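Attaching the record inline, Q. Sequence:
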Amino acid sequence: MSSPVSPSPRSALLLIGHGTRDPAGVQEFLKVSRMVAELETERLVEPCFLELAEPSIEAAVEVLLKQEVQEITAIPLLLFAAGHAKEDIPEALMEATKSSPELQVRQTSPFFTHPKLLELSALRYREALERKGKADISPEATLIVFIGRGSKDPLAYDNMVAFAKARRELTPAGEIEVGFVALTEPKLAATLEWAATTNFRRVVVQPHFLFPGLLPIRVIEETEAIIASLPASIREQQEWIVTEILGAHPLLAEVIVGKAREGVRN
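Structure, as predicted:
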């Protein structure tokens, strides 16, 4: 593990979001960027996106160079390591900084099972139960289904299962399962259809996404469609709840600041 890095007078945090065409997703990303800036007063904080939204990585780096920044800690706001973290973002950073060889650039690792992220995920779960859940259903009678984006990376499934297992320590349940919107098995629809065949009295579907976008909307829509297709007898016996996504929250800002202070990409 690398030692913490002390910020220099001309250092900056480059917060890199995946990007989305959903304006709400862009605004949530910018909101958490402002939270980080309030915590990291010794360094400049500049938000940007890999794709689908502005400003780009190149544009954000240009802003920092105009402010004579000498050191950039690039923080991808990504849950797991896949093609974006391993290839796309490093390549974009290299392209954006190629005319400034004296500039020091470090990239942090994705969030994985960061304790504050687990805490935020557990908070969203508890909030959903408080708003929608029946008091007489026990944790042992509850199935939690985590739904992720999916990836071509062969570790996508293992990473999601590792997160789910760690989260279960904070919110006990009878069983946990994972599913994915695309690219990784098991797929969203198959996972939800299986959940409907179980004997659990409660099924909690938790979309594991940082910000609003088309994929979280798809999770909600497919879940509602599955519920609507169930026989009335099952709907009466089995409670279905969909949690909020992680979203902009002080705990997420603390995750980002924690990654910034790690300093060096794993």
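Strands lie at 11-17, 44-49, 71-76, 104-107, 142-148, 175-180, 202-207, 239-242. Residues 23 and 213 are 8 Å apart (CA to CA).

More tomorrow.
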